What we know:
There is one protein chain. The chain is an alpha+beta fold. Among the domains are: 46-63 and 159-216, no CATH class; 77-155 and 225-230, Alpha-Beta Plaits, CATH 3.30.70. The chain is 60% helix and 21% strand. It contains 8 helices and 7 strands. It has helices at residues 2-29, 64-69, 87-100, 134-142, 158-184, 188-220, 237-240, 243-302, and strands at 46-49, 52-55, 74-84, 104-115, 118-130, 146-156, 221-230. The strands form 2 sheets. A 5-stranded mixed beta sheet has the order 4-5-7-3-6. A hairpin with a 2-residue loop joins β4 (104-115) and β5.
Amino acid sequence: MKNTTKLGIVSFLLAVVFGSVVLGYLYNDQDSFSLVWEPTDKTPPYTTGGDGLVPEPERFEPDEDVSLMLRQLIIKTGTLVLEVFDYDETYSNIINLTRSYEGYISSYNMYTVKISGEKVKKGIFVIRLPSDYFESAMETFRDLGEVSTEDVTTRDVTEEYVDLDSRLRNLQAQEEQYLALLEKAWEIEDILLIQKELERVRGEIERLLGRMKYLEDQATLSTIRIEYNEKEPEPNLWDQLGLDKAWEIGIATFVIFIRGFVIFLVGWSIPIIVIILIVSTIWRKRDRRFRGQRREQENLDTK
């Protein structure tokens, strides 16, 4: 009986020891027993830098298929300087033609200048219209008047756009990786670090998207700048001989003379009047004296 009891106790102790060993092994082998989160899956990959764990972004190179799928992006810009006979008629024609080409007036300015004594109107239109109509529109606007200046420039931005697209996809992949890290992060320091990097990446994404949108807009809609003015009036014989300027100079000289004369009279009138009065008084006294002496001489001769 005693041997049986001892055997049972020994068997129980052996079972306890064996169970403890098995549990310890399982505890160390499985991460599910850990109370503190530690990343076990290194996806997305990250490298250790000065600012902590930073995800290593996937690198996207420009794909030839993507380049072929993108249509060629060319920015077209034209400038026309015209001389027209009727300003208001040309104004209406430009507006109507712009509408017919499915475009719109981006800006308009009008001012007047004085030429040969007459006011001449000048106007400036900035027009945006689909690039497919650019050449046709330039030819049509050219016929509105006499062309004095014409300039056309084109710029191919396809390569820049493809490069921006590649950089954008890299940044978007980086953003996804940071979001994946943010879901797993428990430490406040790690969360703040990841959020800071997210803000930086998203700022770069917004900047690239803005630049790409600008290039698309400029390539989709061409820009035509039209500056036009009424033809300057032809000078008549009077103007050709320069008599108009001579007449103006003569009138100006006469006005200056009259002005100086009036200023002279106003400024010197009082002294002149005083001098005249003094001279007149002296002359009268002298004349009376001369007459008196003459009468006395006549009386003596009579006697």
